[in-house]
Amino acid sequence: MDTVFKIYFPIKNYFKMKHSITLLFALISFMGFAQNPLLIPPTLSGENIALTLQPGSFEFFPGTNTSTFGVNGNILGPTLILENGQDVNITVDNQIGETTTIHWHGMHVSAANDGGPHTTIEPGEIWNPQFTVLDKAATYWYHPHLHMKTNDHVLKGIAGLIIVRDAEEAALDLPRTYGVDDIPVVIQTKTFDANKQIVLGTNALDTEVLANATRDAFINVPSQIIRLRILNGSSQRIYNLGLTDNMPFYQIATDGGLLSAPVQLTRLMLSPGERAEILLDLNGMETQSVYLKSYASELPTGFYGAAQVGMNSMMSIPNYNSNPLNGSDFDILQLAVGEPTGGVTTIPSTLVDVTPWNESDVDATRNLLFAPKNFGPSNVVNGPFVINGASFDINVINETIPLNNIEIWELTNQSMIAHPFHIHDVQFYILSRNGVPVPANEQGRKDVVIVPPQFGTVRFITKFEDFADDEVPYMYHCHMLTHEDDGMMGQFTVVGNPTAVSETGEEIFSIYPNPTSNVVTLNGHMPATIELFNTSGQLLEKKEMTGGNGQFDLSGYASGVYYFNVISAESSKAYKVVKN
Question: pTM for the full model?
């Protein structure tokens, strides 16, 4: 006769036991940590840079090939080494069999070179951006930006770092031997199915922690000052970075440049899209190991990765509570300390001048409100989310900004989850968060800022300079890629002369919407002859218009750039239009 044992426990202890079991499984999964050498991406530099987006496979797990996308390889992409002031000519060859884009995240380039959702690269096509590097020395990155596909393409593996160097940084005694004492660290999490294939879409079971696409990663480092260039390249997860035994480290740079002086820390919160450069003092630590960790147990409620993402049990994300990473401390990278290499041995006391714009010079203030599209217990943390009440519409320009405007942007988060806000084209300085000045390590140049939940606020100041284009927009959006793909994004144009006018002050001509998906309206002085050309100069259509406005139906044409030549009695002028 079989004996059946029944175990009873008070219901009030259930959640405590559930958390203990979760921690046990997490501990078991991490017992084999530090078995795989950290992948160090190769570098590319010089004026001409060729990038190929390609399908591939990669062994995240020994003996199992996982289907991936990569840049010039199977996973991730090469680190681009650029110099401030140099001209670059980049070719991006799309061989992944899907439409995509490549965005130079954090870099100050024209809208046409920015690589947003409008600048699509069709399968088999080559995109050729050319620009002068205007950015300060810092760590930037590149990744896809096709609307509703950004998350999938990043999860599959398309991402790479960009290191910009300049004279100011070169004059400092800092580690800069790539892969030895100047180490790239791209932190990501992924979900894998039973066949060890990457799960795409919105899935909160991102239980695998990767450093440079490496599980259980380690790297041998010298016993001296080393520099980590850290990118949070994850879709959603926020990391609360620290070292073993609360060992101090020194932050020297934010997203877009060096700080005025190193800032000693034991914790550094990094949200998706953010970068930070830190120095570790490993002098005299030969044979020891230091772990880069995320102390997620200390994350506040409402920050993705905390034990609780909503204000109560009803406010949650599917599968979130069963993910052992959430609310638990975990290792990211083991640093195995060896002999010194004769590099840097001291932390510098000062770095560079950091001079924010003056609030008294502000030309305009803009207000953005983040909120769930629909209010409900799950919507307030799971979305979809909107900005100023609107989801992203590729045919709508949300903000028009005069060239050289100095502006303050005020962000308010009405949802119950923190959002990392990113703006293209510019770097900004954070003035306050929740009405309080930010700490010293956040007072440098930024292009991503975390906005706390429950009516959290952020104010920043920036200047829109150098590039004006009244037709091709830049983006601003949440950098939680699932939120971005679901429509938490807007777009703006920077205009030098917003509307052409005659000497009498009357508008001469306008084209809208631009970009367009199909029909475009032309409005202005008539009669006029309107000619439509493609970028090869081929005449596609010609119409005589006599009324105050006319329309062209572009639905039969492929996506891309076209030109209208408007010929009137007074003048002839070309106008560019983007067909999505």
Answer: 0.82
